[in-house]
Specification:
The protein has about 450 residues and is an alpha+beta fold. It folds into 2 domains: about 220 residues, Enolpyruvate transferase domain (UDP-n-acetylglucosamine1-carboxyvinyl-transferase, Chain), CATH 3.65.10; about 210 residues, UDP-n-acetylglucosamine1-carboxyvinyl-transferase, Chain, CATH 3.65.10. The protein is built from 15 helices and 23 strands. The strands form 6 sheets. A 4-stranded mixed beta sheet has the order 21-22-1-23, covered by helices on one side. Strands 2-14-16-15 form a 4-stranded mixed beta sheet. It has a 4-stranded mixed beta sheet with strand order 4-5-3-13, with helices on one face. β15 and β16 form a beta hairpin. α2 crosses α8 and α6 runs parallel beside α7.
């Protein structure tokens, strides 16, 4: 898949756009990593904050600490399609003006999963929207019916037509509503909040997602003058306002990149610090690693890996926050390869999210799967090979696995990695990993 990569990505990997799909990451592992590293701004938080920007009217909003990833680039292009002016400077974007359009091109709207959050903001602004069905990682079925249920609660007629969500409010401006989410979906919660912030009266969202990204969005909206109470709990109350004001906001640290960097150090058998993060956001991962024999200390915004002496396998089951995140499931799976005994990993959120398993077997991993659970027998001999990740977290999983293997591994899927991590390879190099980009051309 050819990507419109930002200049920073092309410079970083030494490749031009047409050759990105042929790129791979070359790793020779078996060497403990050491040092200090800091995660970028949170991908999933940045994307929903950008999706909220069509609410901007005759003012500006600056969002800082944006990760330099391709999904952010697509989101900004969608804002420009709306008629908004977007000025980028390093890791920030300033969004200025008034949204003028409520329809999006397939070229942008279908490329990322978070595009579905434009439903809420654009409907709140115009009372109508035409949005291509969202794309994103191939990690299993992700139906949009829960989003359509939210729209209908606000008296919005919605249907899927020719691969697009087409929706129009029966009454506009919107009126507050009572929402019960049958599942605490993050993006459905986002859409409910964005529909509610300018609706007349009060909206109550029950069984809302509790993820930190929801709190981060609510904090941004509150700085813009919205009234959002209860973000981070299962019951959110939104009292509508007539208009929002300008604001400047900094995206929180990426908890998933924190987990990825933490696992990289552990898989190498090394030691180091992850600074500028929020340890509370990855506590399920931290506790699992401690149970397996990793000496980890937490202090304010720092996680320190003191030593790695794995003594047993583990069992996890993914769940909505504050449970073990489904995005961290592929990232912790390599730990089961190097921990003694058998480990069991169940994914209740995305039961098909095991595309990395067949690739791990190429290393020599002993993995059996039944439905949404895999069993991994640890300490099997592993050797370097050629593997390919089909989504962001799978690529990270394979890179981190390679860090434990003393022979060379080539990991394809760079186009997916760059959707979620701008400088992951560079950060591993700063920890003294023997790793770099290369190309099959």
């Amino acid at each position: 898949m050819d990507l419109n990569l930002p200049v920073a990505h092309e410079a970083a990997i030494g490749l031009t756009e047409p050759s990105v799909s042929k790129a791979f990451v070359k790793i020779t592992g078996g060497k403990p990593l050491h040092g200090t590293v800091t995660p970028d701004g949170a991908k999933n938080s940045a994307l929903i904050q950008l999706a909220a920007m069509p609410l901007v009217e005759d003012t500006w909003v600056k969002i800082d600490n944006l990760p330099g990833i391709t999904d952010v680039d697509v989101s900004i292009e969608m804002l420009r399609e709306c008629g908004l002016t977007c000025k980028r400077e390093k890791n920030a974007v300033t969004v200025i003006g008034n949204a003028k359009k409520y329809a999006f091109s397939e070229e942008n709207g279908s490329r990322i999963r978070s595009s579905i959050a434009f439903l809420g903001s654009v409907l709140s602004r115009f009372g109508r929207v035409r949005l291509p069905l969202p794309g994103g990682d191939a990690i299993g079925d992700r139906p949009i019916d829960i989003h359509l249920d939210v729209l209908r609660a606000f008296q919005i007629d919605a249907r899927v037509e020719n691969g697009c969500v087409v929706a129009e409010a029966r009454k506009f401006p919107l009126e507050g509503a009572e929402i019960f989410l049958r599942y605490p979906s993050v993006l459905a919660t986002v859409n409910a909040i964005l529909l509610a912030v300018k609706a007349t009266g009060k909206t109550v969202i029950v069984n809302a997602a509790k993820e930190p990204e929801i709190i981060d969005l609510a904090s941004l909206l509150s700085k813009m003058g919205a009234h959002v109470i209860g973000a981070g709990t299962e019951r959110i109350i939104v009292r509508g306002v007539e208009r929002l004001n300008g604001a400047e906001y900094q995206v929180m640290p990426d908890r998933l990149e924190t987990g990825a960097l933490l696992m990289a150090i552990v898989m190498s058998g090394g030691s180091g610090k992850i600074t500028g993060t929020i340890p509370e956001h990855v506590l399920p991962l931290v506790h699992t690693l401690r149970d397996c024999g990793v000496d980890i200390q937490i202090d304010d915004a720092t996680i320190e890996i003191k030593s790695v002496q794995l003594n047993k396998g583990f069992q996890i089951s993914t769940a909505p926050y504050p449970g073990f995140a489904t995005d961290l499931q592929p990232i912790i799976t390599p730990l089961a390869l190097v921990a003694p005994g058998e480990s069991a990993i169940t994914d209740t959120v995305f039961p098909e999210r095991f595309g990395h398993v067949s690739e791990l077997r190429k290393f020599g991993a002993d993995i059996k799967r039944n439905g949404n659970t895999i069993w991994v027998h640890g300490l099997e001999p592993l050797s370097g090979c050629e593997v390919a990740g089909g989504d962001i977290r799978s690529v990270v999983c394979l890179i981190n696995t390679a860090l434990s293997v003393g022979t060379e591994t080539k990991v394809f899927g760079v186009e997916h990695l760059l959707r979620g991590h701008a400088r992951f390879v560079d950060k591993l190099k700063s920890l003294e990993a023997q790793i770099d980009y290369s190309s099959a051309l």
